[in-house]
Amino acid sequence: NWGFDPNRPEDPQTNPRNFQILVLMTRPGPDAEPVRVHYSGGTATYAPDGAYYAMFDPETMNGYFALIRETGEMLMTTPGDWNTRVLVHVDDIQGLPPMDHEFVHVFGINVANPAYDPAGAPYYDDINGNGVEDAGEPTFSERHFLGHPDDWRSTFVEQYYRKASDNGFPRPEDIDFGSDVPRLRNGDPLVPRSFRPRLNAFLFGRPNVAVNLLMAFNPPEFFDGTRALNADTPLNPFTVMALVNLVFESVQNVEGTVDFDGDGPQPPRRELIQAHYFIPPVGDPVLLLLSGFGEMIGK
Length: 299
Prior knowledge:
alpha+beta, elongated, 12 strands
């Protein structure tokens, strides 16, 4: 960390001794070397002894890399101002032959997922606090928490908080991580999001298992739409297992009082939560059912 202050206590957030960064490599595989460049006159030139590493940046998804020295000093037109960092497109690095590769896993950076459908995300931010998902309230694939209740930065800040001014997403470069309270560099406060589960969040666990069991051990007329389950419905042991599986794998919406962030800023509240019925010492009801049939057969 180029800006590490030895006269202040070492702190992983406000005064870390070291940073971990991701850099561009010459090729895939364990024999790769970091891409290093010399930078002069606005041109980056690849060289094994170059003064700068090509560091991953939020703009890397568009092909751009920041430049950083081995000592941790980032190249900026105005030292200390992240917004003036020098970005170099990978195709503009002189002497670095491009190689096309296909990857199935990407680590360390955020990339666009064209198949993502926000209509299926299990959580939303209840901005107006009315307990209903309204138009414009963003959805999320997971609920974010504070790692430490006394440190507002101990979480995925860009997702956990929203801007107080317009309820928008804060950009990492705009966040004042050195502040004692959550805010942007311009003083705009950040407020915790109110994550709530959507109605589709926990409706079914693995319904295909139950459906497959029901279809395997029942005749076609069982599904003709004219039958109901009651005390007179004849059921074989396998049908019973399928029905129990359907209940215990699909009925998971239960209202309860929850406080997801513990001592954090969000208060306890009543809401639908995901419930699991396989709780000791009761055990798995399907296995209990099987053991019951086994005892009956043994007798």
